[in-house]
Amino acid sequence: MLNYDVIIIGAGVGLTFVDAAIANGMSCALIEEAKLGGTCLTKGCIPSKVLVAPADMVRSAAHAAKYGVDCEIRGVDWQMISRRMWSQIDNNIGIEESVNSTEGVDLYKGTAGFCSDKCIEVRYPDGSVSPELHGDIIILCPGARTFVPPVNGLEEAGYITSESFFGKDFPEKLPVSIAIVGAGAIGAEFAHVFSAFGVKVYLIERQNRILPLEEPEISSFVEASMMRSGISVITSAEISRCEKTSDGSKRLFISDLMTGDQTVVKSSEIMVATGVIPNTKELRLENTGIETDHRGWVITDRHLRTSVDGVWALGDINGKFQFRHKANYEAEIAVNNIFDPYATLQKVSYDSVPWAVFTNPQVAHAGMTEEQARQGRDGLYIGIKHYSSIAKGFAGGYERGEPDDGFVKLIADKELNILGAHIVGDQASVLIQPYVYLMNAGCSCIADRSRAFKRNRNEDKISEQGSLKPIMRSMVIHPSLSELTAWVIGEMKWVEY
């Protein structure tokens, strides 16, 4: 048996803990079965945005006609786009070299499985197994993977996922058509990319609307935009079976859950984007006292501790929002809680987790939806303001009553505390951020001895909702898109339930 002070499973956000362990003079084992860097670097956020950027440019060029500029679109250079994308993914090579050259760290490239609460073995790709590894501290951040629904004939027909697309299934040339199964954030983003690059896209969703985590009016707005761009959106859809035809194409047999009508979609490729499941099966948690919920997500307390003393879990594996920025936030707290014996234990708060969907148009979200905010309240302040109502929005080609006129929706309680902010339109991912700062207004900044600023997470303050009042007291640059998110407060009206 080999003994380590710290064992880390997962080399995405897990790399943060390698640095912390080395800084504290602790021996460390890092276990990763895939490329170092995690989903964000190697098969998610970063490579996908290298695809989204040129897709956005295609759509922006088409939109430019609305304010008097005729841009000729002659197509995209898929090979150049691919090279740029792979240059980012290949950063994992340097990360691995750095880990291997760091004294005190042993890298195990294989799949981790528990033998007992504090004992792990690593199974390598060739089937061999490492000696047993014992860790005083074990940190679980192995991530999640695409859930593949049990559709008859799907395996035989063949399909890709976001993971395989950024790996063995990455195409040398774009398919003629693609059926994307699942219209959440990943499906909507890929629908935008493929469609902008000239691929015929069928976006298929089992629920009655796309982007089901967003406000219904935002889902409808994006769906209408997609259909204007030539994407075929099919909702309330259950795929009964798939098959591969003699010409190599694929057919999906679809039933409408509302009407019972039958539809057949024929495409060159199928992409599955129907949500994610935790990477816990291979961990053999049945050999431990680590508790999971009914879906397999590891249960943690507000300090990120599992049910086994000395075992911690964060990132996708705990089922609390699958975003890298959420994992980074948790890692900052966990480093404090694990490696500083004199520090007060910090607690996580998920009250104002923001996210963005980089489809076309962009969608951004922070806090509660209107439906969630209604619970336990007799009324809310709700305001909606469209891009066309501000000078910069009109300058950008958005006019009142036009179908592409995006908006911000803001939700507040009777004390004017922000409960939720939702944006659909140009630069939504940027415009949402000031709301996030306001919603975390209970945090204060203190300087440490290195003169770097750190957040002071006083438990009584971190959970407080921020107020709209600082917006009322502030000047807003004119004309700018920032006026959209500031002056929506002038549209807010009390709505009783």
Structure description:
By secondary structure, the chain is an alpha/beta fold. It has three domains: 2-43 and 86-145 and 277-339, FAD/NAD(P)-binding domain; 154-274, FAD/NAD(P)-binding domain, CATH 3.50.50.60; 361-496, FAD/NAD-linked reductase, C-terminal dimerisation domain (Enolase-like, domain 1). The protein contains 17 helices and 24 strands. Strands 1, 2, 3, 4, 5, 6 and 16 form a seven-stranded mixed sheet that branches. The model is unreliable at 444-464 (pLDDT under 50).
Observed structural traits:
globular; 497 residues; Enolase-like, domain 1; 24 strands; six-stranded antiparallel β-sheet; alpha/beta; FAD/NAD(P)-binding domain; seven-stranded mixed β-sheet
CATH homologous superfamily (4th level) name of the largest domain: FAD/NAD(P)-binding domain
Shape: globular
Mean pLDDT figure: 94
DSSP strand tally: 24
CATH classification class of the largest domain: Alpha Beta
Architecture (CATH level 2) name of the largest domain? 3-Layer(bba) Sandwich
Task: Kindly identify the CATH topology of the largest domain.
Answer: FAD/NAD(P)-binding domain
Structure annotation, total helices: 17
Beta-strand proportion: 15-25%
Q: Class by helix and strand content?
A: alpha/beta
